[in-house]
Write a sequence for this structure.
């Protein structure tokens, strides 16, 4: 549970491995996925590292496997994915994997060469027949084949390099040829170059080599060319016979390969990852031992030791590995253990910023608060049910859906957040039940507590009728759970429905917001206590919590007092017409003014309210200089007591008792810059920077308390907007399908219902859901996490085969 509420305790370890055991030990660590290795060769080029040749061999094997996979797909052979996770093979097994497909590739390359030579002999005969002048002058020539798109730059290079002393003829090969290395169809051209002299011959051959043209021998005499052409045709026929005979064998080989190709990919990628990791290690002076440094969770040290022992036993080495803990002043990585349920919520937090080391993790609280705040804005049981059913489908079918590895980014986002969507849907169903809102209609489960005496003709003819709770129409006790269904009836309640829901949802959003911010400030106390930042507790947490409680929590208390003390049947001074406005009361409280009310009403809700309010405002205002000057003055006094200069350009001499006493005094005062594990709460050394930073924090908190409280009104605004859009969609679309009669009414209802369903899902569920999601995200990132969360850490990225294979499966094919 410690990793859930606060990141794991990490330690830097030094690892000594025998060279013959290093491969097997790193393989075992890759299966565990609990060690993040540091690069001990940062200045060494990637091509100069010890295992660069092994990495290249793995790249070549992976390329061949991709070609084999392409051939299997081309033949329509289904590839078997058993879901197995084979261990990384031993290095000697690389030779067996490298032998894949070499014979077939050699046959295809031979066939390509003969086919190109056939085209050269045919085309050059045409060239010689056209160039009659070759019988009068003695010319040398070379003939070959080149990719068609390289002809223009090839011709320009020949002209410039040979200064126009060569003659080039070229002709296109009409049919595409198959590249034996990757199976792609390529278009090529035959060329012949005439020249005189050995110097030009050398220059021409170098240019051909530079453009990767393939040169073939071509006899000068026509008879020799015809004889060679006949021989080539005979060899092509023989090779066609061989290739035809091997076609069935190739198919059988591909069928067998389809059963194992997934495992081959896994093995090759594991081998490549191991050698990439070994390239991060250092060799000792004897060249027999590899040295590594890695970050590991303290709780998993024993598990890592056991894995290293297993690797040593697999390799047959007699020397055990050595794992030593090291002291480090470097910030450790942040590691929060997650599962498939908590991973999505942790990703929401990391999108804002990775938590500083051992800082309070907001994710476990976000599991509850995020879907709840979303549901406050999205409260509709019908829309929540659609969202819940969609998420439930993804959760129930998560294994087959995860195995499909879709390339759609939108689908992957939905699938990765399936548990977030599920909770948002369930919470939306709950808040929709509280709002008594199902597709803008109500459920009269317990029976309305309003007894309407009007007949329908009166209701329809008078649009200004209002529900008055002070009459006999109201039974004087509330609906058991949530809103009374009368507010969704429509025409009866429309005149004061918006007024009632506005007041209800506006106050509700402020209450939720103040409690949410108070909880964030309380979490900062947990941070300060854990890191022993006593000065932050005294000069930040205490004035912040006092400021928030004395002003905004008091406003929340006024709301509850108003709800309890003022009712429709109360005497005049506490009746509904004398109920003071909370907003006006709060503004007058800050301005030290009294509210203007009718003579028969009292401006105050309880005795002594004005005195209490003046005291609360004065104490809240005193918190501002307390936050602004308290901590900098405390740091100045602590440094003077410890004889440390206040200017950061002058540092005390290292070594002596005075420096040790200074550190002890600062530690006792809680004002020194903490160790790297202090969760991002480091203090600047220059006292002017301390004053500036504290001033920024104070202004941000005081102004933010007002703006953040107002920001929670988005809960009210989006809730009303969602309800109104749902009602408009019902009245303008769905209601029209219910007015038709006779047999065609069913057809019209079916068509209109389909149209209404599309609009409901597209606008109210998807677009409104995305809007509510983004607003909820902002409330958590800004209004909630700004109270305690710095997010200045970096993520723990262990060497893990599971992560490597997942990222390789998600990446597009190269």
């Amino acid at each position: 549970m410690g990793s859930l509420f606060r990141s794991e305790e990490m330690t830097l370890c030094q690892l000594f491995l025998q060279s013959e055991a290093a491969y097997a030990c790193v393989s075992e660590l890759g299966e565990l996925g609990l060690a993040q290795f540091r690069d001990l060769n940062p200045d060494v080029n990637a091509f100069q590292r010890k295992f660069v040749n092994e990495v290249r061999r793995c790249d070549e094997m992976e390329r061949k496997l991709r070609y084999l996979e392409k051939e299997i797909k081309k033949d329509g052979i289904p590839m078997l994915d058993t879901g197995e996770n084979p261990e990384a093979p031993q290095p000697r097994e690389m030779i067996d994997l490298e032998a894949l497909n070499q014979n077939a590739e050699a046959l295809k390359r031979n066939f390509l060469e003969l086919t190109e030579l056939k085209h050269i002999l045919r085309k050059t005969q045409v060239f010689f027949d056209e160039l009659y002048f070759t019988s009068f002058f003695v010319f040398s020539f070379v003939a070959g084949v080149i990719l068609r798109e390289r002809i223009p730059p090839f011709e320009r290079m020949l002209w410039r390099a040979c200064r126009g002393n060569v003659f080039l003829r070229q002709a296109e090969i009409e049919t595409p040829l198959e590249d034996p290395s990757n199976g792609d169809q390529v278009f090529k051209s035959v060329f012949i170059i005439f020249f005189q002299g050995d110097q030009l011959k050398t220059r021409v051959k170098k240019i051909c080599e530079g453009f990767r043209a393939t040169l073939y021998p071509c006899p000068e005499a026509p008879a020799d060319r015809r004889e060679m052409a006949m021989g080539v045709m005979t060899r092509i026929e023989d090779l066609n016979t061989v290739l035809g005979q091997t076609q069935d064998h190739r198919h059988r080989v591909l069928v067998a390969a389809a059963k194992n190709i997934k495992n081959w990919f896994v093995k090759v990628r594991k081998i490549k990852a191991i050698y990439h990791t070994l390239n991060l290690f250092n060799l000792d002076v004897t060249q027999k031992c590899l040295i590594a440094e890695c970050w590991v969770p303290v709780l998993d040290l024993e598990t890592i030791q056991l894995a290293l022992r297993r690797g040593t036993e697999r390799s047959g080495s007699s020397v055990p590995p050595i794992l030593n803990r090291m002291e480090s002043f470097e910030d450790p990585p942040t590691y929060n253990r997650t599962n498939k349920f908590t991973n999505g919520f942790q990703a929401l937090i990391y999108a804002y910023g990775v938590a500083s080391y051992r800082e309070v993790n907001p994710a476990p609280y976000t599991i509850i608060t995020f879907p709840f705040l979303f549901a406050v804005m999205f409260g509709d049981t019908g829309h929540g049910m659609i969202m819940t059913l969609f998420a439930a489908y993804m959760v129930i079918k998560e294994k087959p859906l995860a195995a499909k590895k879709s390339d759609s980014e939108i689908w992957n986002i939905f699938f990765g957040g399936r548990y977030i969507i599920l909770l948002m849907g369930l919470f939306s169903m709950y808040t929709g039940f509280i709002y008594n809102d199902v597709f803008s209609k109500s459920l009269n489960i317990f029976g309305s507590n309003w007894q309407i005496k009007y007949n329908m003709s009166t209701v329809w003819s008078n649009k200004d009728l209002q529900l008055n709770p002070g009459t006999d129409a109201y039974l004087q006790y509330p609906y058991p759970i949530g809103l009374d269904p009368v507010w969704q009836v429509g025409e009866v309640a429309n005149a004061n429905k918006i007024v009632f829901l506005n007041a209800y949802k506006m106050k509700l959003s402020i209450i939720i917001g103040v409690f949410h911010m108070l909880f964030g400030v309380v979490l900062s106390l947990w941070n300060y206590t854990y890191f022993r930042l006593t000065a932050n507790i005294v000069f930040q947490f205490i004035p912040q919590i006092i400021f928030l409680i004395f002003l905004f929590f008091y406003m929340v208390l006024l709301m509850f007092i108003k709800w309890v003390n003022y009712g429709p049947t109360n005497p005049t001074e506490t009746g509904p017409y004398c109920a003071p406005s909370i907003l006006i009361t709060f503004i007058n409280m800050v301005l030290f003014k009294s509210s203007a009310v009718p003579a028969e009403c009292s401006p105050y809700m309880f005795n002594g309210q004005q005195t209490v309010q003046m005291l609360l405002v004065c104490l809240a205002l005193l918190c501002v200089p307390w936050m602004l000057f308290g901590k900098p003055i405390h740091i100045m006094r602590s440094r003077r007591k410890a004889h440390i200069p206040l200017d950061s350009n002058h540092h005390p001499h290292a070594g002596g008792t005075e420096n040790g006493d200074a550190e002890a005094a600062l530690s006792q005062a809680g004002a020194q810059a903490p160790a790297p594990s202090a969760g991002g709460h480091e203090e600047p050394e220059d006292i002017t920077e301390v004053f500036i930073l504290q001033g920024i924090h104070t202004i941000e908190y005081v102004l933010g308390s007002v703006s953040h409280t107002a920001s929670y009104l988005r809960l009210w605004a989006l809730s009303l907007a969602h309800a109104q859009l749902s009602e408009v969609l019902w009245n303008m679309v769905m209601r029209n399908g219910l007015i038709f009669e006779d047999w065609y009414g069913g057809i019209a209802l079916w068509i209109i219902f389909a149209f209404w369903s599309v609009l409901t899902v597209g606008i109210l569920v998807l677009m409104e859901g995305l809007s509510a999601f983004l607003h909820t995200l902002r409330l958590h990132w800004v209004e909630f996490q700004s109270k305690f969360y710095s997010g200045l850490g970096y993520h723990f990225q262990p060497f893990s085969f599971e992560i490597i294979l997942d990222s390789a499966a998600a990446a597009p094919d190269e």
